[in-house]
Known about the structure:
Belongs to the HIBADH-related family. This is 2-hydroxy-3-oxopropionate reductase. The protein has helices spanning 17-26, 38-46, 55-59, 72-79, 85-88, 103-114, 128-134, 145-156, 170-198, 203-211, 218-229, 238-255, 260-274, 285-292; strands at 8-11, 31-34, 50-51, 64-67, 94-97, 119-122, 125-126, 137-142, 159-166. The radius of gyration is 20 Å and the shape is globular. It has 297 residues and is of the alpha/beta class.
Amino acid sequence: MTTNLPKIAWIGLGIMGSPMSENLIKAGYDVTGFTLEQDKLDRLTAAGGTAAGSIAEAVRDADVVITMVPASPHVEAIAYGPDGILENARSGALLIDMSSITPQTSVDLAKAAEDKGIRVLDAPVSGGEAGAVEAVLSIMVGGEQTDFDQAEPIFEALGRTIVLCGPHGSGQTVKAANQLIVAVNIQACAEAVVFLEKSGVDLKAALDVLNGGLAGSTVLTRKKDNFLNRDFKPGFRIDLHHKDMGIVTDAARNVGAALPVGAVVAQLVASLRAQGDGGLDHSALLRAVERLSGAQV
């Protein structure tokens, strides 16, 4: 099928990357992907995409390269070096990094890419696995307006709320704030769940009425069943939220912002990891509150 849509290379086909790349294929884009796990490449080809054997092969002919990997070191590993994106993508290509990384990593990447004639947007997302599957992600973008305008149709196939937040790194800064709010919100919900259960209240009824008032939130809507069923299959892993709390704590220190409650929740997330719960969904903050309240979890 010939198409006037830009050719896309997608690097990183994890919990988020796989459904997002599939949504682009559904929207008619030609997507060539690379990731380290063969079963993820098989999933991409089954959805109508093309599997590449390396980063270089994936990006060689791409108009747009999209990356979705866990953290700053992974972005640096795929972007730099002889086998990386910057050495192998063509001049004029647009690199959209949708990973959640430090703002400084995004700023440095944009500078390095400029020397190669490659334009960069940082475009982290919020909405978790469900948001990725349903193509209703919130996408916060840092970079140039002209590049944002070119990328907007791609973003519209992936998400619902799409905002250019400022220059390079701004998307990551807003994402860090997002992760601060989400973590504190989950923690508050978890404390409420333990309090309600220990008080003998019908938890489902209580969460339904709370979610209809000022205490209601997207977090509670999305995570209510996790709490009720103690189902912590990862939509967003504690390990990744631990990384993100490190980003926001560090970035806040750099700009002189005090995050007292954020700091406490960052430590609670860290404690969950230390107890072996890093692979669970971030709603497993409930387990930490249960332990503190005397339950054997």
